[in-house]
Amino acid sequence: MYMSDSTQDGNTSEAAAAAAETAYETPEPTIFENAYQMSIDYVEKHNIMQIFQEITEKLVYSKPDDPLQFILMEVQSMIEARQAEMERISEENKDVQVL
């Protein structure tokens, strides 16, 4: 740590110390909402527990030789089902707009 000549000599004054403290102030950290609660909210919003539960149930029931491949296929199947549902809803909305 760098020390000025006056500091090394022991001739510091209270004014110099106060000036040094005000010259460099630690910025206040950004305060976020409770991290645990934010995590819980995210998990609930996106149904993460239900997704893992469904995949785990199928995995334990099927007992595949390659569990990772099985999980990958299940996730892909869920994505495709979600996309199909979104397309169905989009088509329904188009039909309603036409009427």
UniProtKB/TrEMBL annotation:
Gene3D superfamilies: cAMP-dependent protein kinase regulatory subunit, dimerization-anchoring domain
Pfam families: Tex55
SUPFAM superfamilies in the cross-refs: Dimerization-anchoring domain of cAMP-dependent PK regulatory subunit
Record-annotated membrane-spanning stretches: none
Low complexity bias: start-end ranges: 12-22
Sequence segments annotated as region (Disordered): 1-22
Biased composition (Polar residues): 1-11
PANTHER family hit by this protein: TESTIS-SPECIFIC EXPRESSED PROTEIN 55, TESTIS-SPECIFIC EXPRESSED PROTEIN 55-LIKE
The name this protein goes by in its record: Uncharacterized protein C3orf30 homolog
Gene transcribed to yield this protein: CUNH3orf30
